[in-house]
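Cross-posting from the modeling subforum.

Setting up a comparison between two proteins and wanted a second pair of eyes on the formatting. Protein 1 (sequence, then structure tokens):
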Amino acid sequence: MFDSPRAAEPRDGEITALAAWLGVSARATRACCARLRAVATALDAANDGPDLAPATRWRTALRLSARLLTVEGEGAVADAASRLLARLDGESRAVTDAQLRAMVTRCLTERCVLAIDYWNVEASAWEPRLIEPLSLSNVDGHWTVLAFCRTRSDLRSFRFDRVRTAAPTVARYEPRHGLSLERFLHRQKILSRPRLAG
């Protein structure tokens, strides 16, 4: 669509085409483009290292602004950013961050089990998981859900950008005694000590 972050303002026809490609409104697309320009300008100003090729700088700015908008944006804007991020990362995600946030919120309220298809980085494969959501958070621009994983029988943190599909189930869960965000963080701290020390 654009040759570089310094390109002229996108025309109405370009906005319409991009909106259709993302499956969102032209208004949401225009908001994404405005944020993108701000991030691209900041990247240019902050680049102290070797000059990035225009295509690399553009793609980096696109990814950063999309990730920011999944956090800052609301409704259609966050949804558009989520879809753009999924396309940039080459993921075949059927669920957006905005949809997943709504599902997790519902599961937290109704205490229903969430079925997800999750990317296992170590195995480089998609895996079905059944999770009991405990909390929703955003860490360094990544939406995550802390949950008890029935598949692994353990407390785990799941990044939204690694979830391909999700659906609330009819199964309900009761609070598990001894499970908390504090306990999870304490355990993560203990597990990371050897890596930091070694």
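Protein 2 (same layout):
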Amino acid sequence: MCVVHELIDGYWHRTAIDKRPVSGSVQVDIHGPAGDQHLDASHGGVDAAVYVYAEEDAAYFAELLGHEVPAGWFGENLRVRGLDVTGALLGERWLVGDVETGTVLEVRKPRTPCRNLSMHVGVEGFHLDFVRTGRVGAMCRVVSVGKVEAGDSITTVHRPSHEVSIGVLVAGMSGSQAAELLASDAALTTGIRAKARRRVQRDH
């Protein structure tokens, strides 16, 4: 689990992208982990309370960049291993930790990085290349508050009735996928619902 280490200068204003691991258990409420911050409304809110990123995707960029990509380096709160975050469906739910004290997260949308990511990484235009790979991680809302600690298990407790994953949404839904998403049991953000409707309308 990672939270803000220090606020640093960003492209337009100060940014909380510099996140680093913390020891012990961290309380997670509907606004995210204790000790974390969001300085830009477009990067925070209850639908983006916890940013989850996969170790496997970080390894891809580590090879590409030629150096390690430690937990928190992309601004994520939770670095996970063995969980296909790019393949996670919108509305998918994960139990982090145990049922009694852990937290339940719901996948709400992909991360949409800005120039602050490129500045933090030190590579011009990196935020655009980051998106092109589809390996952007998942922004999640907190369904059930609780505590998270390094080494906690993660269990998928709900898979919605559609096939639109984080990776599919970033790459571009087909009309049939968008229609299926709209007809599913997934609670969608306003932005994603509007995007799906526009995609369906393109086929008519």
